[in-house]
Specification:
mainly alpha, 3-stranded antiparallel beta sheet, two-stranded antiparallel sheet, binds protoporphyrin IX containing FE
Length: about 400
Amino acid sequence: AKEIMKTHDLAFCSRPSLTVPNILFYGSKGMAFSPYGEYWRQLKSLVMLKLLSNTRVKSYKNVREDEIALMIQTLGESCGTTVDLGPILSSLTNNIISRVALRRRLEGPKYTKLLHEFMAALDVFDIGSYFPWLSWVDHFTGSVRKAKKIAIEFDEFLERIIEERLNKKKGEDAESNEEEDFVDILLDVQKNDTTGFTLHTDALKALILEAFAAGTETTQTALMWTMSELIKNPKEMNKLRRELTEIAQGNVMISEEDLEKIPYLKAVIKESLRLHPPAPLLIPRISTQDVKVMGYDIAAGTQVIINAWGIGRDPASWEEPDEFRPERFLNGPINYQGSQFEWLAFGAGRRGCPGIQFSAPVMELLVANIIYKFDIKLPNGIKNEDLDMTEAFGFTINRKFPLLVSVSPRF
Ligand code: HEM
């Protein structure tokens, strides 16, 4: 991985052209699937400076705190019953992205279903992307037809939002003190950019869709596995709870300011992402020039898939690799950026994930508050240690079976 993502990062930092993402993201006009070059560089700097900068991410604090408080309330109301954590965490991550990108919650069954179909379409392995002579198979399985239908429906939805926003801008909006969302920011770039970069409306829409595609299911999956590992490992859960209780000093919620004071929480999340990187094979790359890697000649145009799941469980790097032992990350050098190449949940190098700063506080705040506020048990007398950890198959690897729990308030 280091050879690909550091030593030869420049040679391997393009993306292959993939059928379904091409359909869903307006000919891969977003950042994640566009080939390396001037266009991608412009998008990356736009995303890093305007949408996901430190200051901007901090300004979404209210959204995070609101949505997490709502979720905690929902869980509190379900005490005494069995709850499925999956849908609750899914609506949390969808609503956070939706409020930040579109200034609205994704309410109503129509859009929840559409988003679900969108994510499912991306999860499909379209064989034509890897073996072009077999692309007829994708037409046969219907994946291309489905992706086209979803693309049209989402386009209509985004068109309406953009139109609403433009009409509003013309009218009253100038003095509004509402927080800007991604649509406002991107429309502003489109109108006022002085760098000479033209942001076409298709690219604007692709960037919005990408925030959903890249930021919802990945975060939900990470949360599902972190909660699963903590439930399965009561000793670690209790240790975390003790630390949270100490830091909270009797307050009803753990706040974002508290997070920096709880290194064990970060260690828990890193350990869970080591065992269960949500995108276990990252996003494929393609070489743009002939290059020699560890003595092998790799021709330009070769697709490379990095197995972050395997790297995270490699016994050459990790003692007892299948065990959940957050302590291994305390005082260690491993950071979310993957600079050690033994831990790659967010990828690394030029094409590494730009959403780390965005998702880290969501994951930390949510796990901290659930563990701090509730005792969690498995239903029907199943012992926590016996929780089934089977993985489902897909581009993101989530739990195969629902995570059913019963929660009771601690205070
Ligand atoms: C736990 C949450 C997340 C995980 C595990 C995750 C993981 C990843 C991974 C593995 C990649 C590919 C990296 C590579 O090829 O080296 C990636 C790329 C990307 N992620 Fe994330 N991500 C998460 C959250 C987010 C969020 C919240 C956003 C935006 C709001 C985001 C936006 C992107 C984009 C735009 C790319 C493409 C970068 C490029 O190709 O230049 N991600 N992410």
